[in-house]
């Protein structure tokens, strides 16, 4: 028996119970009809003229029904005589390479075949101006040279700063379409100044680039589209702020305020810019944002396939696994951190042999007075919070909460021969 096994000997894992967290939600069912209605509004579809080359900006997040949104937008543009093409609008993601960014889109289901138009991926940018403090403003070269730009993005709270515009339309303009160079410049003075930089740089682009309109979504607590709107360029900043307030009100959460251990099965860039949303886990990479549960120990078990080895976010965890470590593409991961000047998301927690060892270590070190009553929650990822698993110690609180439905009996955690959690 090795030293780690000796240290963890005698530690027991709690029995777990499946529950369902119920959130009040609305959902847009007929996406094609809403897209048609939005394009028919004044100031939207009428801006597209015959023969115009239209850049459709698409980011790296796993938006609900993203391929469909892009495909329908492309079709509406083409119906009006425009010549649409997709540009990746994702700053330094995809390893800050043109091929990497095209691959990110493909992993999200956005390909030339699925959306019906060319994907033009390049890291070339054009400097289009400066903001008051002298920082340059950069724009994707393909988008800059197009006759018009259309943005598609979800609006939600940011993971590392607070401001009137966070992760949404203005940020897509500033950082997404700024590519690596623009993202690096926007982050130049750290997240302390991100709110002002995002606003100022977006305003420069709206003033001097051919932005026609934006298509914004807000998702409900189960990550389904609940709001879908198109807004003309002159109303993008106002709409972004209004949609952010709506997104914050609709955001899901773990319905327990204090946890001894939180287990996240997987993280990935398509889930959150930080791999797992700090607004859900309560663990932030900077001091400029806060919220979420008080978690003593955080365990991260694996990476998603779609993240392509980008392990940003693992750094706020306390324990992870060798299988996750072996999947890390350090170039992809570090490119993000160097660009945004924040190393914390990529720092390594303790790397344990397998899932079982990581969980045992987290329980043993969670500082609970009675480890037989450890308060542990396990989630698939921060996008899926409807059905989760809780330890027996949380059952009384769950049964007392009308928003929680208990859907099973306490059962021991099951592991395969390699020590990986099953179920």
From TrEMBL:
<dbReference type="GO" id="GO:0050043">
    <property type="term" value="F:lactate racemase activity"/>
</dbReference>
<feature type="domain" description="LarA-like N-terminal">
    <location>
        <begin position="26"/>
        <end position="189"/>
    </location>
</feature>
<protein>
    <recommendedName>
        <fullName>LarA-like N-terminal domain-containing protein</fullName>
    </recommendedName>
</protein>
<dbReference type="Pfam" id="PF09861">
    <property type="entry name" value="Lar_N"/>
</dbReference>
<dbReference type="InterPro" id="IPR018657">
    <property type="entry name" value="LarA-like_N"/>
</dbReference>
């Amino acid at each position: 028996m090795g030293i780690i096994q000796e240290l963890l000997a005698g530690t027991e894992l709690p029995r777990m119970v499946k529950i369902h967290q119920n959130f009040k939600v609305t959902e847009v069912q007929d996406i094609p009809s809403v897209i048609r209605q939005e394009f028919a509004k004044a100031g939207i579809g009428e801006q597209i003229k015959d023969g115009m080359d239209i850049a459709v900006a698409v980011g790296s997040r796993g938006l609900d029904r993203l391929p469909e949104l892009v495909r329908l937008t492309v079709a509406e543009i083409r119906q009006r005589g425009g010549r649409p093409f997709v540009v990746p609008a994702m700053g330094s993601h995809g390893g800050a390479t043109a091929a990497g960014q095209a691959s990110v889109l493909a992993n999200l289901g956005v390909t030339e075949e699925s959306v019906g138009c060319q994907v033009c991926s390049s890291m070339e940018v054009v400097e289009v101006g400066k903001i008051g403090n002298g920082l340059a403003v950069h724009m994707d070269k393909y988008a800059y040279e197009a006759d018009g730009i259309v943005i598609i993005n979800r609006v939600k709270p940011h993971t590392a700063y607070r401001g009137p515009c966070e992760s949404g339309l203005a940020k897509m303009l500033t950082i997404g379409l700024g590519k690596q160079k623009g993202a690096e410049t926007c982050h130049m003075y750290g997240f302390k100044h991100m709110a002002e930089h995002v606003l100022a740089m977006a305003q420069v682009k709206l003033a001097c680039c051919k932005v026609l309109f934006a298509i914004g979504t807000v998702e409900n607590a189960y990550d389904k589209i609940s709001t879908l709107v198109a807004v003309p360029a002159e109303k993008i900043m106002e709409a972004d702020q209004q949609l952010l307030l709506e997104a914050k009100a609709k955001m899901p959460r773990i319905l327990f305020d204090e946890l001894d251990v939180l287990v996240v099965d997987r993280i990935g860039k398509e889930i959150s810019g930080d791999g797992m949303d700090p607004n859900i886990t309560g663990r932030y990479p900077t001091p400029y944002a806060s919220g979420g549960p008080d978690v003593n120990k955080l365990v991260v078990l694996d990476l998603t396939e779609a993240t392509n080895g980008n392990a940003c976010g693992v750094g706020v965890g306390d324990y992870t696994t060798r299988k996750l470590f072996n999947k890390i593409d350090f170039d992809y991961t570090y490119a993000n951190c160097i660009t945004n000047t924040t190393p914390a998301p990529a720092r390594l927690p303790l790397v344990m042999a397998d899932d079982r060892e990581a969980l045992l270590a987290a329980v043993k070190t969670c500082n609970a007075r009675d480890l037989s009553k450890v308060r542990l929650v396990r989630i698939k990822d921060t996008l899926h919070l409807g059905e989760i698993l809780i330890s027996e110690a949380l059952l009384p609180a769950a049964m007392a909460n009308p928003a929680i439905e208990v859907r099973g009996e306490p059962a021991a955690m099951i592991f395969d021969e390699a020590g990986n959690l099953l179920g």
